[in-house]
Amino acid sequence: MTEEVHDVRLQVNGATHAVTVPARRLLSDALRHDCGLTGTHVGCEHGVCGACTVLMDGRPVRSCLVLAVSAEDTEVTTVEGLAEDTGEDDTVLSPVQQAFSDCHGLQCGFCTPGFLTTITAGLRANPDPTEDEARDMIAGNLCRCTGYQNIVKAVLRAAELTREGR
Amino acid sequence: MKPAPFAYRRPETVEEALEALAREPGAKVLAGGQSLVPLLSMRLASPGTLVDVNRLPGLDQVTVSDDEVRVGALVRHADLLAHAPAGERQPLLAMALAHVAHATIRNRGTTVGSIVHADAAAEMPTVLALLGGSVEVASVRGRRTIAAADLFAGPLESTIAADELALSAGFPVLGPGEGVGFAEVARRHGDYALCGVAGLVRVEDDAVTEARLGYLSVADVPTVVDVTGCDPAEAAARALERIEPGDDIHASAAYRAQLVKVLTRRVLTAATDDARSRDARRTG
């Protein structure tokens, strides 16, 4: 029996990817294997760890809990889409990425893409979080290096950088 | 951990969705998918067809009337949580929704989907049961309303037929003299609760005339216990007559029973205080 496939147009980081996938293809796998965007990491694959978090229409969602075929007509932002394109050869790190670098919020780096997308949206909703609010913002993402202290610092630093217009 | 193959349908109208559900007896409805997709990935569920209802028009509305907060099938938890008029008319919604998973899951998961998934460890089925709400469902055979009391048949099992689609859920608003409370204990905020309790209390002339508590994560189905006339210790004893908490990797039965006692006291007190202060403001 051949499996039914679907032609899907995914809008990712401002580009259109026309892919042909079976209905069971998870968005996380479509991003990695069909679009070649391997920045999105796959951890637990049942919605617990948050490593695969991407933005769909600006809101963080677990890409392992969304079917690629049902992501059609949404705007997906992955970690690759966070850096600012300067139009030159270079890109500039976003405030959240810069803050992770400044505060050593990135340890082994596996969970980092999910944290970066989650915090990017979290700071849009709450640009000036307290430390408790910063912890709450990242509560759905697991870091197995237990780098939370530095990640919390990075949330607060990213808020500072954003306020400074960086 | 990948889902087994299935056929995928994405109808554009409710009628098309109902026809698809009628045609394919093994079909499952996909809305937010935050409970269903993990079950597919772990192959605990392998429906032949998924009917994706995310494109259906008109199901993403919250409407607040004098009697109820009506929540459409495509309203995400996060949007209901942020809906100020809904929260004002039935404050238990926001109290409980703040405990539904993590913000990222609430962005995609739907409140109606969580209810019809009928997980006794989830918050919103118990809230619907406690408030005495209902779910409106449709099929090619017609529409009907299922009262919460008739909805939850067993673990992850509702009385909604395989060819029926839940269109909305109705939560009664807070009545005069009524107050609410909610508390739960989880290993990590946003995880499934080890035990959760929702409370609804009515006072008249400062006297408690009605008190009910709803329990989650400690029984096979959302369980509502009438504790009118009970002090907190009696209320906990009455709840434990109805509920036999089980053991699992996260907590022993004895610990869960202890949580029932502690949370019963906490929620009964909080809901009574809430009812009294609302009543005092109302009667001025």
Automatic annotation (TrEMBL), chain A:
Domain 2Fe-2S ferredoxin-type: 6-82
Pfam families reported in the protein's UniProt record: Fer2, Fer2_2
PROSITE patterns reported for this sequence: 2FE2S_FER_1, 2FE2S_FER_2
Any coiled-coil regions, as ranges: none
Keywords linked to the UniProt accession: 2Fe-2S, Iron, Iron-sulfur, Metal-binding, Oxidoreductase
Gene3D superfamilies linked: 3.10.20.30, [2Fe-2S]-binding domain
Protein name: (2Fe-2S)-binding protein
GO MF annotation: an example: 2 iron, 2 sulfur cluster binding
Keyword Protease found: no
UniProt xrefs under CDD domains: fer2 (cd00207)
Pathway annotation from the record: Alkaloid degradation; nicotine degradation
Keyword Metal-binding part of the UniProt annotation: yes
TrEMBL record, chain B:
Matches recorded under PROSITE patterns: FAD_PCMH (PS51387)
Superkingdom of the source species: Bacteria
Keyword Oxidoreductase: yes
Entry keyword set: FAD, Flavoprotein, Oxidoreductase
SUPFAM superfamilies: CO dehydrogenase flavoprotein C-terminal domain-like, FAD-binding/transporter-associated domain-like
Molecular function terms, GO-annotated: FAD binding; oxidoreductase activity
InterPro entries linked: CO_DH_flav_C, CO_DH_flav_C_dom_sf, Diverse_Substr_Oxidored, FAD-bd_PCMH, FAD-bd_PCMH-like_sf, FAD-bd_PCMH_sub1, FAD-bd_PCMH_sub2, Mopterin_DH_FAD-bd
A Pfam cross-reference name: CO_deh_flav_C
Positions of the FAD-binding PCMH-type domain: 1-176
PANTHER family in the record: XANTHINE DEHYDROGENASE SUBUNIT C-RELATED
Record-given protein name: Xanthine dehydrogenase family protein subunit M
